[in-house]
Write a structure and sequence with these properties.
This protein is an alpha/beta fold and about 400 residues long. The protein contains 13 helices and 22 strands. The protein has an eight-stranded mixed beta sheet with strand order 13-12-9-14-17-18-20-21, sandwiched between helices. A six-stranded parallel beta sheet has the order 3-2-1-4-5-6, sandwiched between helices. Strands 7-8 form a two-stranded antiparallel ribbon. Its EC number is 4.1.1.36, 6.3.2.5.
Length: about 400
Amino acid sequence: MQLEGNTILLGITGGIAAYKSCNIVRLLQKRGARVKVVMSEHATEFVGPLTFRALTNEPVAVGLFDDPSDPIHHISLAQEPDLVVVAPATANIIAKMANGVADDLISTTLLATPRPIVIAPAMNNGMWKAPATQANMATLRERGVHVVGPGSGYLACGNVDTGRMSEPEVIVEAVCEVLNPAPQDLAGKRIVITAGPTHEPIDPVRFIGNRSSGKMGIALAGEAARRGAAVTLVLGPTSLDVPCGVECVRVQTAAEMLQAALSAFQTADAAICAAAVADYTPAAPADHKLKKANERLDRIELVETVDILAELSRQKGERCVIGFAAETDNVVEYAERKLARKGCDVIIANDVSRTDSGFGTDTNKAWIVSTTGTQELPVLTKPQLADTILDLLQKL
């Protein structure tokens, strides 16, 4: 709940990405924020004000004179929030902001506000690359406006290029960072983080895997980067986005993850092994799809994979290595045994038998197990647990 007690004014301008602003409202509310909305008249052609009225339970401001009870509505809107975010921010509103134009409610509010401003540009790639837009963006950055994106991808015009509005989750993270900047206590440190499952091939189609989503390791990578660390994320197969500012090495198998982790660890200060690495891999994977009719899979001969956590711990010297233990019973007991067996500094024991913890969930029930004792943690969101682990790492 990083935004508890904060009021956010969401400005929505006339672009097709306005439909994503509904999700921005919900994500801000989940972080504890009160959200108010101001729209340009063109924005209402894409999403109606009633939608945002229903989502926020607040009046939605559109016109300069649409609230008779507030004759200077743009001033009250400018003063009330703790932060203003404009998403989508069209080339038009960016130009108005850069040049001090105030000819409607949203532009007058932006000109009048003393609060921090975050913008998420969204437009056609040609408009984004135009010299005028780039000059306007340079002006806004120089004035301290926080810019998120734009990203690259499929645009409404059919092009695949830069100009796509950043995803709502990324925009909300930027809002949280502006209002609650992370301490830079990991600046100058290099951290290797493994995340996600591994897929061990039986043939080119089938594999042995597990239910890991990669959410925990990705949360760790994002939080570590926010706190100033140079992060190398060794990521198994997952569809999740990689946090901004994180170097990512994508892998499929345990063997590939081992090599990537060892390579990155050579110049690192610490490693956090959050990946759910397969303990076994097929001894002789087929080079073609096995046919049920004449190549029955009556059995699969398996061989053990190399233990990545143990190998990094063996090479760590004075450096710090933190591992994870996903257990369904005797969670702390098994984690204590794992700590002694692997030789790492800390084990984060995770009870994956619970519905609010483990693979694919947004929260974890965990214990910190070290040679000095065991600390039980409450149920935390994965970013909260990531911050707790990084606090511990910083002390170590």
